[in-house]
Design brief:
By secondary structure, the chain is of the alpha+beta class. It has 2 helices and 4 strands. A 4-stranded antiparallel sheet has the order 2-3-1-4, with helices on one face. α1 runs antiparallel to α2. It is globular, with a radius of gyration of 13 Å.
Length: about 100
């Protein structure tokens, strides 16, 4: 399994309970597919340089994981259809 760093941005309008549920759901994708979450870093609410899907702010979360392609494809599929996720970025962690 490879190590990856994933950043995703959630809608700023989510309350704390809804945000926590969304984060748990997204992290559960990796855990249910045999992956490991190595680190979670919540950057919090930040303004965008330009609007994304008509939103001007978002809640940033950066995670480091160890997973296979199946988990990544499932994460990508779910985030594309999830209206609470504004943007994702997956990079290979070379550390």
């Amino acid at each position: 399994m490879k190590k990856y760093e994933i950043m995703y941005i959630l809608k700023a309008s989510l309350d704390d309970a809804a945000r926590k549920a969304e984060v748990d759901k997204l992290h559960g994708v990796f855990l249910s597919n045999g992956g490991k979450i190595l680190d979670v870093n919540e950057w919090g609410l930040r303004e965008f340089a330009y609007p994304i899907k008509k939103e001007v702010k978002g809640y940033y979360v950066v995670i480091k994981i160890e997973a296979d392609n199946v988990a990544l494809k499932e994460f990508d599929r779910l985030t594309r259809f999830d209206n609470n996720v504004l943007r994702t970025l997956v990079t290979v962690d070379h550390q």
